[in-house]
Design a protein that fits this description.
This protein is α/β, with parallel strands linked by helices. Among the domains are: 20-34 and 47-193, Rossmann fold (3-Layer(aba) Sandwich), CATH 3.40.50.980; 420-573, GMP Synthetase, Chain A, domain 3 (2-Layer Sandwich), CATH 3.30.300.30. It contains 16 helices and 27 strands.
Length: 573
């Protein structure tokens, strides 16, 4: 939590106003009443109805035994029940732990056990996967299903008119989000009502939200981007309408934009490219769309330049992290800023340091490591004392792992990542987590996972493995099947596989991921000589294209025909 002097400063500045998430919905229901808050297919739910549904579900969950500070893992797709659930938990003071629909047994089991979850709220069959099968890894958590419960507790049966206990305070924890961390399974990010809602309110102002705003959600609604930048909470603050979609397919989404007169949407770069290409082919009516936000990964300048001419709306670049700091280009910024930077911070009290490898500040215009602290940037991960000692400085700055440079006006340009993390179309993948799973394969002696540059997704994943003596080198389909059987989320499964005899090492004997990344970049740009060695640091013979069909971004198939870097060693895909 924030030291007392910082907390006092943020309250005196008016950043922290004493508002809770329950206050947000209560105020919206009182102010906007019968205005439509949520559109989910043919369902249209008013602010008043949403508030009533949340209170009735809170009463039912309380009767079921959910109490203040209990952790509840929430894994729901983009459906209206999501809002019933989270606002019910907010009212009780229970803490939602936000999982994604793409998460499978490895992640859900970890979230439930690590947080000692009281309940696991999920869906039935979604996108071809039966989420009820995840009940087997939920431990002692009560399994609640939105839809056909299949022998578990039905969410629909829990709405009650019972009494409710007092709610939480503004400085209490509101929920736990998942980090895109670079080490092992995701760390949990503790957010308070006061700090998160400051970010929400300011984001709604920066993004120009009004009661006439109609916000399309195609990213998973539990993503920080879709939650608060300005996201669904920003829309509720402004009294606008949230339009939910379970697909990002332009053939479905474009008519939805026209029907619901959508004014603002948020995408990751691969989806933006998909929409641009489709709009050029289909010439849809997108006349209501005023702002397209793009964030989650860096948007190429050439793609940014197409948004206005092709979609007929303003581009707003967004760069932030679930741990806190969010940057926006402003709606009145000139093209040079909007097309070529990733924005500037929300708050005058966002402190940004850009430093070299020794934590010495670098001049503006110089690439360095981004460190930050402020009124909505956390001071530590939940129950992760050892990790916090390296993730935060002694004086409370968060080490983001991003490499940036600052230009005039405090705008930031993202230049890459310093951490061993892969940003695959906006989905953050910790290399160490995937490596741990790879090492369980009976033929794998050692493993290293690195980013493979990709024009479409920004980065794909490439797994390097060293095979055990006497074992047959597995091919990519076998590795993928093994990881799926391990319950790993689909977006974390490697796109490419390289089998090598050994890994390059640093001066202290650690695997040199930098040299592996350099090896992949060289393969992508340098033709191989016949008979050349295929080890990192040397030329390589042409390789086999990546297996098609690996998921790309949330709800989006991998782009057909996207070239992968060539180059193999023995028996790779």
């Amino acid at each position: 939590m924030w030291p007392d002097d910082f907390a006092d400063r943020y309250r005196k500045a008016g950043h922290w106003t004493g508002q809770t998430f329950d206050d947000l919905l209560r105020t919206a229901a009182e102010k906007f009443g019968d205005r439509i808050a949520v559109v989910d297919g043919e369902r249209r739910i008013s602010y008043r109805s949403l508030r009533e549904r949340a209170l009735r579900l809170a009463a039912g969950l309380h009767e079921l035994g959910v109490r203040r500070d209990d952790r509840v893992v929430v894994q729901l797709p983009n459906v209206a029940e999501y809002f019933d659930v989270i606002f019910a938990l907010f009212r009780l003071g229970a803490l939602p732990v936000f999982a994604l629909p793409a998460h499978r047994s490895a992640e859900i089991g970890y979230f439930c056990s690590h947080t000692s979850a009281t309940a696991f709220i999920t869906t039935g069959v979604h996108d071809g996967f039966d989420h009820r099968t995840l009940a087997s890894v939920a431990g002692s958590a009560r399994v609640i299903v939105a839809g056909d419960p299949g022998g578990h507790t039905a969410l629909a049966d829990l709405y009650s008119d019972g009494d409710l206990p007092p709610g939480p305070g503004p400085s209490d924890l509101g929920f736990l989000q998942l980090s895109g961390g670079s080490t092992g399974l995701p760390k949990l990010i503790p957010r308070t009502h006061d700090d998160y809602l400051y970010s929400v309110r300011e984001s709604a102002e920066i993004c120009g939200l009004t009661p006439d705003s109609s916000y399309l959600v195609v990213l998973p609604v539990a993503h920080n981007f879709a939650m608060s930048s300005p996201g669904v909470l920003g829309v509720f603050h402004a009294g606008g309408t949230v339009v939910l979609s379970t697909t990002s397919d332009p053939a479905t989404v474009f008519p939805l934009i026209q029907r619901e007169r959508v004014t603002i949407a948020a995408l990751v770069p691969p989806l933006a490219l998909l929409w641009l290409d489709a709009a050029e082919r289909l010439s849809p009516d997108l006349s209501s769309l005023e702002v397209l936000q793009v964030g989650g990964a860096k948007l190429l300048d050439s793609v940014a330049a197409r948004v206005g001419p092709v979609l007929g709306c303003k581009l707003q670049q967004v760069f932030g992290m679930a741990e806190g700091l969010v940057n926006y280009t402003r709606l009145d910024d000139g093209d040079d800023i909007v097309l070529h930077t990733q924005g500037r911070p929300i708050s005058p009290d966002d402190e940004v340091l850009i430093v070299d490898d020794s934590d010495v500040p670098v001049p503006d215009g110089t690439v360095g490591h981004l460190l930050t602290r402020g009124p909505y940037t956390i001071r530590g991960y939940w129950n992760a004392e050892a990790h916090n000692r390296t993730a935060f400085t002694a004086d409370g700055f968060y080490r983001t792992g991003d490499l940036v440079r600052r230009v005039d006006g405090g705008y930031l340009i993202v230049e890459g990542r310093a951490k061993d993390q892969i940003n695959r179309g906006g989905e953050k993948i910790a290399a160490e987590e995937v490596e741990d799973h790879l090492l369980t394969h009976p033929a794998v002696h050692d493993a290293a996972v690195v980013a493979l540059p990709d024009d479409y997704l920004g980065e794909r994943t490439c797994a390097f493995i060293v095979v055990k003596d006497g074992a047959t080198a597995p091919r990519l389909p076998q590795i993928r099947a093994h990881l799926r059987d391990r319950g790993l989320a689909a977006f974390k499964i490697p796109d490419k596989l390289r089998v090598v005899e050994r890994f390059p090492v640093t001066g202290v004997g650690k695997t040199s991921r930098r040299e592996l990344r350099t090896f992949l970049r060289d393969l992508a740009t340098t033709p191989a000589e016949p008979g050349a060695s295929a080890e990192p640091g040397a030329s390589a013979e042409p390789g086999t294209p990546a297996e098609p069909g690996n998921p790309a971004a949330p709800g989006t198939p991998a782009e057909p025909g996207t070239p992968a870097a060539s180059g193999t060693s023995k028996g790779t895909d």
